[in-house]
Amino acid sequence: MNEDDLIFRLRERARIRRQIPSRKSVQEGAPDRIADLLEEAATEIERLRLPGDSMDGPLIKLFRD
């Protein structure tokens, strides 16, 4: 996966947030809601893309028509 890709960056940011020891959610072992949203957004973007073509997913096609 390309490091400039939005999906990669969203997931990487979620991973980093979950590892910051000073974060309250990390200290308490609680879920990080922002990290969860980042993961959810990445998954949804991935679902809307066609395999191998980041700019030709169903959402992009909807706006082209």
Structure at a glance:
With 65 residues, the chain is mainly α. Helices cover 65% and strands 0% of the residues.
List keywords for this structure.
single chain, 65 residues, mainly alpha, 0% strand
Please state the CA-atom Rg, rounded to the nearest Å.
15 Å
Largest sheet properties: none
What's the β-strand tally? 0
Structural class: mainly alpha
- Please mark out the parts with pLDDT under 50 across 5 or more consecutive residues, or reply none: none
How many alpha or pi helices? 4
Question: Helicity, in percent?
Answer: 55-70%
Tell me what portion of residues adopts beta-strand conformation. under 5%
SSE string? HHHH
Count of distinct structural domains: 1
Query: What is the end-to-end distance?
Result: 29 Å
Instruction: Report the average pLDDT across residues.
Output: 83
Shape: elongated
Task: Give an overview in words.
- The chain has 65 residues and is mainly alpha-helical.
- The chain has helices at residues 6-19, 24-28, 33-48, 58-64.
- The mean pLDDT is 83.
Secondary-structure blueprint:
Layout: H1 6-19, H2 24-28, H3 33-48, H4 58-64
